[in-house]
Design a protein that fits this description.
Layout lengths: L4 E7 L11 H8 L2 E8 L2 E9 H9 L4 E5 L4 E11 L6 E8 L5 E11 L3 H4 L3 E4 L3 E7 L7 E4 L8 E3 L10 E2 L6 E6 L9 H6 L16
Parallel strand pairs: 1-4, 2-6, 7-10
Antiparallel strand pairs: 1-3, 2-3, 4-5, 5-6, 7-9, 8-13, 9-12, 11-13
Pfam families: Ribosomal_L25p (PF01386), Ribosomal_TL5_C (PF14693)
Subunit structure: Part of the 50S ribosomal subunit; part of the 5S rRNA/L5/L18/L25 subcomplex. Contacts the 5S rRNA. Binds to the 5S rRNA independently of L5 and L18.
Keywords: Ribonucleoprotein, Ribosomal protein, RNA-binding, rRNA-binding
């Protein structure tokens, strides 16, 4: 189960610091802080800021839940959206949605493939088709990942959504027949047939015979 990461945040003036493209937001990022908002549960949107280091640590930990300390209160939130710069290096803005740990939510969870497939030892190749799935579960029971054991996969073996062993309370919304991962056989070197080889032989052009000189 994913543990909620605890973060100290500061409120922003909603009249002066709205949005992500304003001068105020750019100035804020230059000080090492990231603009963000808390919304949901039919309550007012609260503009906040958090340390850029905390924001990056939160992303690297692949955390779903966060407990935001605003000083006079604590908000339990789901990390809903992270906006990056065009190079994908700097965090520009974070959206947090209010939740309580018992309510059912939908979120993306990573599939963690574990083990060395038998078929790979036979020359096959493990091909991963799906890396994340949308799940529905209580907000307080979001798994860090869904572990998938691939060690038993032989050549042409496969695992589908229906084969997953899910944590208690977690439901996958995808079609049970969706292919997640399989072991494909090695590519075969095909030798051309004799007929094909003959067909590509270069044509031999014989010199024309000279006419006999008249006696």
């Amino acid at each position: 189960m994913s543990e909620a990461i605890k973060l100290r945040v500061e409120t922003r003036d909603p009249e002066k610091n709205k949005g992500t493209g304003t001068r105020a937001s750019r100035r804020l990022r230059k000080t090492g802080r990231i603009p963000a908002v808390i919304y949901g549960h039919k309550q007012a949107v609260v503009p906040i800021s958090l340390s850029a280091l905390d924001a990056r640590s939160m992303i690297e930990a692949a955390s779903h839940l966060a407990e935001l300390d605003l000083g006079d209160q604590t908000e339990t939130v789901l990390i809903r959206d992270v906006q990056w710069d065009h190079l994908g290096r700097e965090i520009l803005h974070v959206d947090f949605a209010r939740v309580n740990k018992e309510e059912l939510i939908e979120t993306e969870v990573e599939l963690e493939y574990k083990g060395d497939p038998v078929g790979v030892g036979e020359g096959g190749l493990l091909e991963t088709i799906v890396r994340t799935l949308t799940v529905k579960c209580p907000a307080g029971a979001i798994p860090d990942s869904i572990k998938v054991d691939v060690s038993g996969l032989a050549l042409n073996g496969s695992i589908h959504v229906r084969d997953l062993q899910l944590p208690a309370g977690v439901v996958v919304e995808a079609d049970p027949d969706v292919l997640l991962v399989h072991v494909v056989p090695p590519a075969q070197d095909v030798e051309p047939s004799t007929a094909a080889a003959d067909a590509v032989q270069p044509e031999v052009i014989k010199p024309e015979r000279k006419d006999k000189e008249a006696e």
